Amino acid sequence: MDRDWAEPIDLDAVAGAAGYSRYHFIRVFRAAYGQTPGQYLSRRRIERAEELLRTADLSVTEICTLVGFASLGTFSSSFRKHTGLTPSQYRARHVEAGSALVPGCYALLWHGGFKAFHAREGREQEPEQERNSGEAD
């Protein structure tokens, strides 16, 4: 979950990999971490969003998608629940006027955001095709 926090998680597959049923895995996870896998994943996504809001010149909607939320409303309410602030209020409080933020295109590239946007739009990235240099084999 920590490695693929921005991707949708198949809880049955994760539980199966651990050798548990879905429901037993949730109980064991909660006993070990004090929260359900869904709550843990949401917290990790919010932590990532906090970092991006402080450092990247991306819109709240772009950050929402980049960290793995499917709905801006769910993202905003979860963010407020965890931080006590809306994403916009958080950014305003933590970014001083005139601060140099990482340009959005670099932040998206670094965080793999172009894949997320293509997936959201239902497009797959085309694999690079080998180019013929014109030389005979």
Which features does this protein show?
8 helices; two-stranded parallel sheet
Written description of the protein model:
By secondary structure, the protein is mostly helical. Helices cover 59% and strands 3% of the residues. It contains eight helices and two strands. The chain has helices spanning 11-18, 22-33, 37-55, 60-66, 72-83, 87-94, 104-110, 113-120, and strands spanning 56-57, 102-103. It has a two-stranded parallel ribbon with strand order 1-2. Helix 1 (11-18) packs across helix 2 (22-33) and helix 3 packs across helix 6 (87-94). It is elongated, with a radius of gyration of 19 Å. It starts with 10 loop residues before the first helix and ends in a 17-residue tail after the last helix.
The largest beta-sheet arranges its strands as 1-2
The structure class reads mainly alpha
Q: How far apart are the termini?
A: 46 Å
Round the Cα radius of gyration to an integer and report it: 19 Å
Mean pLDDT: 79
Report the sheet-strand fraction.
under 5%
User: Main beta sheet, described?
Assistant: 2 strands, parallel
Residue windows where pLDDT falls under 50 for at least 5 positions:
125-135
Number of strands: 2
Order of helices and strands: HHHEHHHEHH
Which bin fits the share of residues in helices? 55-70%
Total helix count?
8
Shape: elongated
